[in-house]
Specification:
Layout lengths: L1 H5 L1 H10 L2 E6 L4 H9 E10 L16 H6 L3 E5 L1 H7 L1 H16 L15
Parallel strand pairs: 1-2, 2-3
């Protein structure tokens, strides 16, 4: 996974796709930083701990602060598992809402790039 982030493959794929308003990253460390560097003006990157990635095993994130300031972009993070356990009805409602938007073709669920699990 780190080779995708450090190499030109990810950057080239992101250039093909173009700027995007929302990046969702289930891996942390360099993945969040790389995605944040390519987010569009006013966009956001959301990072969460994936099911197979304990938060204590994640590498530190080095955020591109100048990009965040001059492109008015943001980074958000949350603990997906804690949220799912604390509010299962909210999780079900949120998933149903996203799927409804996709069904109405108001949202595309096609990922720009899928980073392999390490």
């Amino acid at each position: 996974a780190d080779s995708d982030v450090k190499g030109t493959n990810l950057a080239a794929k992101l250039q093909e796709v173009g700027a995007y308003k929302l990046a969702i990253c289930g891996q942390s460390g360099r993945h969040v930083s790389s995605l944040q560097r390519h987010v569009a003006r006013g966009g956001a990157t959301v990072a969460y701990n994936g099911v197979y990635e304990p938060i204590h095993s994640a590498a530190d994130v080095q955020l591109p602060i100048s990009h965040m300031i001059f492109h008015d972009s943001s980074v958000y993070g949350f603990d997906l598992l804690a949220w799912a356990r604390a509010a299962p009805a909210d999780l079900k409602h949120g998933a149903a809402s996203v799927l409804a938007l996709a069904k109405e073709q108001k949202l595309s669920l096609k990922p720009a790039h899928v980073l392999p699990q390490a």
